[in-house]
Amino acid sequence: MSLKKTRKIIHIDMDAFYASIEQRDSPELKNRPLIVGGSPNSRSVVCSASYEARRFGVRSAMSCAQAFRLCPQAIFISPHFEKYSQASLKMREIFKKVTSLIEPLGLDEAYLDVTENLLNEPMAKKIAVWIKDQIMKEIGTTASAGVGPNKFIAKLASDSVKPNGLVVVPPEKVFAFIQQLPVEKFWGVGPATTKKLHSKEIRTAADIRRLSPHQLQTIVGSYSSSLFEMAHGRDEREVDPSLDRKSKGSETTFKQDILNRNELLRYLEMQCLEISVDLKKLEMFGKTITLKIKYFDFKSITRSKTLFQPTNEVDYIYETAQELLSKDTEVGHRPVRLIGVSIGNLIYIKDPMQLWFEFPRIEFNLTKRNESTYL
Ligand SMILES: [Mg+2]
């Protein structure tokens, strides 16, 4: 028997985050199908869709044109990232009252390890209720929460009760909870692995559990051991609060190759916005911008530039990415299959709120940290 204490992990996920924030701020958008993204006749993508729009099959990352075909009565609005990142920061302040073991996943989701917690509350369910209440009170939107003995189970749990749900899966219920879980829902299982499993009539966790580790290995190769563990409800990954990631990036692979330069720039701008918002949320700044392009023939190139001073401002990131794109690429001449941007050389700033709203266009050297610079 393991002496390890059973962990209590909460996965919290805001419901239709951007759309909910917009509905919160504009009463006329409430209870209406709302799409946050580009205009319906552009090739831009849906950033977020309200539940009213999802009923028509609209999903995040779908092209706005397709969303419009599915739901012509939807209201389309452009994103307001500053608002979302404000809400995201507030959410993190709430989490910090519970534990320092917080692992953010994007702007609106996080894992919290509440095995030990600052509220001294042994019932993880009560903590989840408290967090949901605080989010409603402080931010004015709903979130869904899943509680489980590990990250895999906690996330599945919260996904299963969206929107505005809460579910607890105690260790003794884990088997039953994932019994009928389709293999494609497993963490790390992509289309290729799904295909391999389906070809052997393996469709659910229960199907996987009927195999020996060796049998599973002959089907999916090296991935078999983690899949085997998950099918038994086990997941040893820690909640990782470490902020010193090496880089932060975003990329998009197109269903159809894109030749049009302006169209590519729109994706690029969206990606830069995403990175900027993520960095702000993590209280981080980066210095090296890298543009990645994969052409239709799978030939891929990267171009980088290191800035004089670190930034997390979308304007600077996008400006640099555009510059890289204009220089020494074949964009506009060869169809592009994938475009992406990332920022590296990241640094963490302790108290960014002081400089948030007036991020220095003035010069200051962040490598020499001097408290007085930030106060
Ligand atoms: Mg969400």
What does this structure look like?
By secondary structure, the chain is α+β, with helices and mostly antiparallel strands. It has helices at residues 17-25, 51-54, 64-70, 81-96, 124-138, 151-159, 174-178, 191-199, 205-209, 213-220, 224-231, 261-282, 314-326, 353-356, 371-374, and strands spanning 9-14, 34-37, 46-49, 75-77, 102-105, 109-113, 143-148, 166-168, 247-258, 284-295, 300-311, 336-344, 347-348. Strands 5-6-1-7-8 form a five-stranded mixed β-sheet. Strands 9, 10, 11, 12 and 13 form a five-stranded antiparallel β-sheet that branches. The chain has a three-stranded mixed β-sheet with strand order 3-2-4. Residues 350-375 have low confidence and may be disordered. Magnesium ion (MG) is lined by residues 13-14, 17, 108-109.
In short:
The protein is built from 15 helices and 13 strands. It is α+β, with helices and mostly antiparallel strands and 375 residues long.
Distance between the termini: 53 Å
Per DSSP E runs of 2 or more residues, the count of β-strands stands at: 13
Within CATH, the superfamily of the largest domain carries the name: DNA polymerase, Y-family, little finger domain
Write the CATH fold name of the largest domain.
Answer: Dna Ligase, domain 1
Number of domains: 4
Classification by helices and strands: alpha+beta
- Ions and ligands: magnesium ion
Total helix count?
15
Element order: H for helix, E for strand: EHEEHHEHEEHEHEHHHHHEHEEHEEHH
Order of strands in the sheet with the most strands? 5-6-1-7-8
> What does the main sheet amount to?
5 strands, mixed
Mean pLDDT: 86
Strand content: 15-25%
Radius of gyration: 22 Å
Q: Provide the CATH top-level class of the largest domain.
A: Alpha Beta
Which residues sit in consecutive blocks of at least 5 with pLDDT less than 50? Answer: 350-375
Question: What CATH architecture label of the largest domain applies?
Answer: 2-Layer Sandwich
- How would the global form be characterised? globular
Helical amount: 25-40%
